[in-house]
Amino acid sequence: STAATANVFPSVPVGIALSQPFDPAVYAYTAVVDSYVVGVQVYYQLRQALTTVASTQARRRLLAASEVYMKYYALQTGANVIRLTTTSPNGQHSERYTLTITRDSAQNEPPSPPPPPQSPPPPPSPPPWTRPPPPPPDVDGMPPPAPPTPPPPTAALIAPKDTTQCAHCPAGTFSSIMNALECTPCAIGRFASAPLSDACAECSPGEYMHVTGGVQCAKCPMDSYANVSGTRLCVPCGSNVTTSTVGSSWCDVKTAAVPKENPDVYYVDVAFGISFHQMSGSLSGFAPNVGLDASDNDAFARALEIDVAKAFNVTRSAMMVDIVDVGSSADTQFRRRRRRFRRALLQEGDESSGVTVTCYASDSCVGAAIISVTMQATTVPNYGVVRDYQSNVNAIEDTKRRAKAVVAALRDDPIALFTTVSIGIGGVVLGHAFVSADDGLMIDKLPTPPREVPNVFGSVNVAVIVVAIILSSVAFSVAYVMHRRWRIQREVAFIEADLACQQQKKKSGSRSGGTGSIRHYKHKQSTPRASWAARLNQANAKDVEQGAARTATAKKPQVQMLETSQKSLVQVAKFKERRGQTAVQSMWTQRNQPPPAIGVRAPPTSTGTTKR
Fold it and tell me: How does pLDDT run across 342-369, given as a tens digit for each residue?
């Protein structure tokens, strides 16, 4: 206290001088006293905090004069720290004031401290049925001597804790009745996140609370779930299922083991050991600490699986965890049957070396385990899809690099990878990783390299040869088509010449001279070929000369066939002629033809009939 506060504390005597006058906005003060001062009395008066106003500097004001309180503190030689914590009536605002009093040292100190002075006379009595706030907590160090015995309470008071105002239930507690003497902590599976609660709420599905007086529910860890409200602990997921995130209400993700027997699936195996150490530590209480409804050993194994799955980006079905009991040891070497594929490590070698994992009580070992992880490099291809050799090799190499990076991080800081296990053990935990010199990596099978085809062309470019073959094939096809076209055109020319001879023969009425025009189109042939008309005339003449009716009868079908062929050739020629003319030319050609005379046989039409 200082002289400036005399108007506030009229009954308080002037005491020691503080480093500065008291200001509610300043929270730290210092003072120095002589060696003969063995105790101090701190007088304080409570003020009510208001909401902070950003536009002004005033944060509080004295609403009404309240009681002046006093607390006695004994002083030791040297620095003595006195802390006073104030709490607002609604329980949402608190402030702590620190007073450091330094007592000088002296050779001859008084044998015992004098009794504390009497308390100042109390102010007028407060209204009935009110209670003051609880006194501030004691400071660290020697407890102060008991203050003078207060006068006996009056009959109007029901308890020594009665104050002018009711205290508010803090977070994690509640009170559902009026005039309660104390607040009730929230039950297991319930919480109250704010003070002044008249009831506790249940934890939502996917959350849990395993202690009483909970302020906020915790989310279920990975690979566990809580499907009802008000859950104490989360249930671990079963086999072949897991969760996609923390705080799940059901195990909604299906898992499957790596299909190692599939010839198109390649993978990398990693094996290592891990041990956790803590002075006087154990796995007792491990399951509640991580929020799993299981035994401590099972919860320890599940926590290892959760951390390993997160570090290697795999599921629980792709790993195997063997717990090493305290006081025993085990080997991390792979125990797999040999296959026709040799083991291929990051460094060339035939065997994967292992290390021995130890867990002894003399080393403060809490728990240890051997873990083997299978990292799948390639997936099962779709039906009909074939991956090439280089793609499989690249996938295996990429998986090797990822596995090696995780193992390197495990060697540097094992606890950083096993955060769930550290939370379950609690406190300061040390870890030790057991990894072989080859990083514990092993590959059971490798892709078969493609068969090399020898180059029979030597240094000649194969592409040039292929292009030349293609061009030759195209040239031969074009030549063949042109040759066939030339032959067809030649045959058509012979037919047209034969038709022309037939028409000339009909006009002249002579049977000779038909072969002369044909010889013109035979282009240097040694033996002239007779036309169909000439052959027909020769056959008829021969039949007449011989006078054989039987021969004439036998030749008649041949003659009819020849006549039919001749008519067909004539129709073909006329069709080609009409096809080469336009519609107008065809019309004028028909108009220019003279009408047939009466009694004269009309020329054959395109349909092979005659007009009479």
Answer: 333 333 444 445 678 888 888 889 999 9
Helical axes 389-412 vs 296-312, angle rounded to 10°: 130
> pLDDT tens, 403-437?
999 999 999 998 999 999 999 998 889 999 988 87
Euclidean distance between CA atoms 443 and 441, whole angstroms: 7
306 vs 224: CA distance, rounded Å:
10
Beta-strand ranges (E) seen in 355-478 are 356-359, 365-376, 430-434, 441-442
- Cα-based distances in Å from 55 to 52, 58, 62, 411: 9, 9, 19, 56
Question: What are the φ/ψ torsions at residue 365 (nearest 5 degrees)?
Answer: -75, 130
Q: In the numeric block, which tokens belong to residue 529?
A: 């070929």
Q: Quick check: helix, strand or coil at residue 343?
A: coil
Please calculate the CA angle 483-489-495 and round it to the nearest 5 degrees: 140
The span from the CA of 44 to the CA of 170, in Å, is 24
For residue 458, is pLDDT > 90? no
Between CA 143 and CA 137 the distance in angstroms is 11
pLDDT of residue 578: 72
Look up the pTM and report it: 0.49
Q: What length does the chain have? A: 612
Q: What is the model's pLDDT at position 348?
A: 40
Task: Find out whether 494 and 569 touch, Cβ atoms under 8 Å.
Answer: no
In the predicted model, what is the mean pLDDT of the chain?
75
Which of 373, 345, 352, 349 lies closest to 274, judged by CA? 373
Helix or strand holding residue 294 (H, E) = none
Least confident of 43-57, 162-176, 464-478: 43-57
Q: 269 near 280, Cβ under 8 Å?
A: no
* CA pair distance 179, 514, nearest whole angstrom: 144
For residues 123-135, average pLDDT = 50
All residues at 6 or more sequence positions from 264 whose CB lies less than 8 Å from its CB, including other chains: 378, 380, 381, 387
Instruction: Give first-to-last CA distance, the chain, whole Å.
Output: 154
For the cut 70, the answer to whether the pLDDT of residue 64 exceeds it is: no
Q: How far apart are CA 564 and CA 543, in angstroms?
A: 20
What are the angstrom distances between the C-alpha of 274 and each of 324, 345, 390, 506? 10, 22, 36, 117
CB of 35 closer than 8 Å to CB of 106: yes
Q: What is the 3-state secondary structure of 107-169?
A: CCCCCCCCCCCCCCCCCCCCCCCCECCCCCCCCCCCCCCCCCCCCCCCCCCCCCCCEECCCCC
Quick check: 59 and 53 in contact, CB under 8 A? yes
Joined tokens for residue 341: 């594929």
Buried b (16+ CB within 10 A) or exposed e, 231-253: bbbbbbbeeebbbeebbbbebee
With CA atoms as reference, report the closest residue to 91 among 48, 28, 62.
48
